Amino acid sequence: MALPSSGQISFADLQAEFGGSNPISLSEFRASNHNSAKTSGGPNYRIADVSKNTVNNKLQLNGNDVDFININTDSKLVLILESGVWNDGNLYFSTTNTPGNNNLLNTGVTNNGAGVGSIMVIDGADAGFTSSTYGVVNGYLKSDTTTASTAVEIQIVTDPGNTTTAVDYLYGKARFSFSDAGSFVGGSVNTKITTQSNILDTDNGVIIPNGQSVDFSHVMTALPTIFSGGTWHYYYLQLYDAAWNASTKVFTFDNFRQCAWTNNTGYTNGSGTFLNGSNNNATNVANYIASSAGYNVARAPNYAGTGENVTLQMSNSGATLNHTFTNNTGGYLLLYKYTMSNSTGFPAGSNNRLGSLLWADSGGSFTNAHTVNGTGCWNAFTRQNFGFPTWLRITFYFTPVGSGTETQVGFYNYIFDDGSSQTDALNKIKTDTEAYFHDPLDTGEDYPYMYCDVNADSVDFRYYLPGVLRIVPEYYRYGYNQGGAGGVAHTSTAASAIQGHSNYNFANFKSDELSTGANGNQNIKRQTNNMSLSQYYNARGELTLGSG
Q: What pTM, to 2 d.p., does this model score?
């Protein structure tokens, strides 16, 4: 519970909210942007876009006029001079308040005299500065056109953050949490998904590790036309060699070829049976294909690519043609898809499949099943697949204090290492988030807008401004893109059966309490001079996380 919003506040109330021991002193409860003794507050820096109010010549931080700035001795002030925001030449930190490039401070300041498209940093911890609990003016922030009265005092305040009772400035907070600590395991290219699914248009088939196999199934129909005297058939699969790059998490493909199985008795192991007008029905089509080189027997191709080190075992259950394909090539293999030339009549999402049938049509010409309009000799198709590194996308939304207007501040795609552990996944979320959310001018990536704390089963996100931070996490499919261009995002949350990860459930949380500056402890003084208990209205030790 936060402290009351009005009325009486006692020292005991402060102690109950923020901790500490007797005897109590009000100076214990000074505000700090950063508290090195805690993880609940902000980072050891404060970021602000600098502009100038052309009406009154005052400098502005994040659009607000300022007369003075307090910097704690364990924190930095990061001033960003964005093009289109900063409009007054250069920015200076000087021992005097007279405008322009004069009396600049050389210690504790990076890039003094900064211009548009640059950053100035003032480090309160620098030994060249003096400080006290009251605050000590160490210089003035000014521009080419500020006046003596509009230059901004920079006061260095002795840091209260080494005390356990320091009051943290609070900022928008959200949490991503795995449901069970330590249980998540990321998807892997070596994990087989035993359930069967369609091949989506953006997928390119199935990638199979060496020594592994996949099952797939066609539901057959009668052949649309057939040579009156009967026909041999040739059942084709398309292959690529696949190479996995564990660093980029991308497969590349080369050495395309085809292999085939046939019932033509002129070729090894052929059954000699063939389809004709009298036996052309769905069950017989499935059965005769399955009998191409021996029913329910694993066999190498006996027509094209007879030297290929793969086997195919087929059987049928009525009109359903069942397959088990095994890769013994010594490396990863892509079993590439055929796409039907016309999807009309196919069940949704099933116009892509792994095999194609060659047979003689009514005119005596051999026809490929995948080029026949309509359903041809195929109906539904599904296949097993192997997984892929887990792709988690988190989208960030922020509502500034007092605005009531939420905006998207960005998103990030976290593609975990193959078979990533939960600990590695959480640390990657932290590292990638803090590396990505930066001002473009921060080329050193020292001052992220979003910073993170990793807990047992979760990551806490904090924004650099007070307000409400909300996150939306989703799992995306990371598919196989022909040519090695990487993963393809499917715009729906993927199930574990597609991704190949386990114990993947998550929850997300946010705090919606930061509607005013007081909620974030922004009213509480950093200095010990003229402190008042009324400044602690609505103050709190930490934010409460609720449903995201």
A: 0.87
